[in-house]
Specification:
Elements: H1 5-13, E1 19-21, E2 24-26, E3 33-37, E4 44-49, H2 53-72, H3 75-91, H4 93-104, H5 108-128, E5 135-138, E6 145-152, E7 156-159, H6 167-179, E8 183-186, H7 193-204, E9 212-214, H8 220-229, E10 235-239, H9 242-254, E11 258-262, E12 267-271, H10 277-289, E13 299-305, H11 309-321, H12 341-356, E14 360-363, E15 378-381, E16 398-404, H13 407-415, E17 419-420, E18 422-426, H14 430-439, E19 444-447, E20 462-463, E21 466-467, H15 474-477, E22 480-487
Helix pairs in contact: 2-8, 3-5, 3-6, 3-7, 4-5, 4-7, 5-6, 10-11
The chain binds nicotinamide-adenine-dinucleotide.
Nicotinamide-adenine-dinucleotide binds next to helix 8 and helix 9.
Keywords: Oxidoreductase
Family: Belongs to the aldehyde dehydrogenase family.
InterPro entries: Ald_DH/histidinol_DH, Ald_DH_C, Ald_DH_CS_GLU, Ald_DH_N, Aldehyde_DH_dom, Aldehyde_DH_Superfamily
Length: about 500
């Protein structure tokens, strides 16, 4: 289907531009606004209200006022709201996909994939909401009873990044609704439009006023700062970079807030000589190129056994060079632009540094000329193990390949990072899969799989990749606290 300028304009006009506070879309208290751009053209897509500290606190007032009643709302009712929102998003899947493509740049096919993936968190947590078990037991001494029940943590601040505008929001909002928490959501200023449409859809699905408040704005810290300093807030859930996560953890300490931190990654992609190399290349393309490499799970270091490194690199480079960069709204495009010029400069600086250190660009290696922030899909061969590009999150369509000779060496290289989010392992040997998984210091392992995200699985990392899990049965626990009642025998 061709996306016409009229279709884009009509969709953009349907997106609320205000702050969502206590069920109403409002202007900012100082009348301030900010623009949202299309990274494929640099043009302005929409102008939104920019929240002040005062607005952020008004959002917390609304969340706090709604918390008591929301906690008492039957789980079945909360579950039904999530399920209705899931159905509405499915009906509007094309709108959500196009909106993400416009503000974030990813090709439409990928944006559609994100709608399916992101929406699953609403369905999953609509099912989890009614299976929130407690326990009742006799004390070990045989006298008296213990009753344990889950309760919502209380008002939460949810801060999301720009790279997966729908999924990063549903992964937090879904379990918060299921657990009975109220929320202040602060989307990334580069891609706030999807959250605006998502919030409007939740209201339509019956979410009561004040349960979800959305405050986008130019200055992240002037929104999060006063909210986190307010004792009515009980939790912060953040997805974004490790440096910002560290700062928020320090701020959270003052109020002893519960925290969930989904931070950066530096995923190793291990290819052993017994792997099916064609499947490994297919997995590498998915693990590297999903979202143009702008993913925390993106394969960042390709560690390939020396005996197959040449063949793997050649096949991988062929696949990368057959991609078609272009605006995501064009069906032929298989790679979108990077989010902004700074992101593209950062990627190129890492490539230039690696090449200066002796790496060879087998394909790509340069920004692409023309409008938007496009970077050529790149494979770098012969990357020295101490190159900066192997330490930093690349966040772009660049694949550095390096080699190992033994399993022990592969594990040591994979673990040589302060990050521990996603990892990938390609081998036909199941015993090796278990051995490596046991020793690898990563929260997630893709075994012969280049994509590992699923609403039913606990997503998250170890080391500096964060704290807590999103999805699975673990996801709802992040928004629950336990209360124990000690009952004296009659
Ligand atoms: P970022 O840390 O710059 O921003 C994330 C969010 O934090 C945005 O909403 C931003 O406005 C806000 N923010 C920035 N500075 C802040 C401050 N001082 N106080 C309060 N809020 C602040 O990250 P990004 O560039 O939007 O996203 C990319 C990063 O996110 C990468 O490091 C990526 O690995 C990570 N990420 C992690 C996961 C995960 O699940 N682990 C998922 C997606 C992205």
């Amino acid at each position: 289907m061709t996306i016409t300028p009229e279709r884009e304009a009509e969709l953009l006009a349907s997106v609320p531009t205000g702050l969502l506070i206590d069920g109403e879309w409002r202007d900012a208290s100082d009348g301030g606004t900010f623009d949202v751009h299309d990274p494929a053209t640099g043009k302005v897509l929409a102008t939104l209200a920019s929240a002040t500290s005062e607005d952020a606190l008004a959002a917390l007032d609304a969340a706090d006022a709604a918390q008591g009643q929301w906690a008492l709302t039957p789980a079945r009712e909360r579950s039904n709201i999530l399920r209705r929102a899931f159905d509405l998003i499915n009906e509007r899947a094309e709108d959500f996909a196009l909106l993400m493509t416009l503000e974030m740049g990813k090709p439409l096919a990928e944006a559609r994939g994100e709608v399916t993936y992101g929406n699953e968190f609403l369905r999953w947590f609509s099912e989890e909401a009614v299976r929130d078990y407690g326990r009742y037991l006799t004390t070990p001494e045989g006298k008296n009873k213990i009753l344990v029940q889950n309760k919502p943590v209380g008002p939460c601040l949810l801060i999301t990044p720009w790279n997966f505008p729908l999924a990063m929001a549903t992964r937090k909002v879904g379990p918060a609704i299921a657990a009975g928490c109220t929320m202040v959501l602060k989307p990334a200023k580069l891609t706030p439009l999807t959250s605006q449409l998502f919030a409007a859809t939740l209201l339509e699905a019956g979410l009561p006023a004040g349960v979800l408040n959305v405050v986008s704005g130019k200055s992240a810290s002037s929104i999060s700062g006063p909210v986190m300093a307010d004792p009515r807030l009980r939790k912060v859930s953040f997805t974004g970079s490790t440096p910002v996560g560290k700062r928020l953890l320090k701020d959270a300490a003052d109020n002893v807030l519960r925290t969930s931190m989904e931070l950066g990654g530096n995923a190793p992609f291990l290819v052993f000589d017994d792997a099916d190399l064609d499947k490994a290349v297919e997995g590498a393309m998915a693990a590297k190129m999903r979202n143009m490499g702008e993913a925390c799970t993106a394969a960042n270091r390709f560690l390939v056994q020396d005996t197959v490194a040449e063949e793997f690199t050649r096949k991988f480079a062929e696949a990368m060079s057959s991609l078609t960069p272009g605006r995501g709204t064009e069906e032929a495009s298989t790679v979108g632009p990077l989010i902004d010029s700074g992101a593209r400069d950062d990627v190129h600086a890492l490539v230039s540094d690696a090449v200066a250190a002796g790496a060879v660009a087998v394909t790509g290696g340069e920004p692409l000329a023309g409008d938007g922030y496009f970077y050529a899909p790149t494979v770098l061969g012969g990357v020295p193990n101490d190159a900066e590009i192997l330490r930093e999150e690349i966040f772009g369509p660049v694949a550095p390949v390096t080699t190992f000779s033994t399993e022990e060496e592969a594990i040591a290289l994979a673990n040589a990072s302060e990050y521990g989010l996603a990892s990938y392992l390609f081998t036909s040997d199941y015993a090796r899969m278990f051995r490596v998984a046991e020793q690898i210091e990563f929260g997630m392992v893709g075994f012969n799989a280049g994509v590992i995200s699923n609403a039913a699985a606990p997503f998250g990392g170890v080391k500096q990749s964060g704290l807590g899990r999103e999805g699975g049965s673990e996801g709802i626990a992040e928004y629950s606290t336990v209360q124990y009642i000690g009952i004296a025998d009659p």
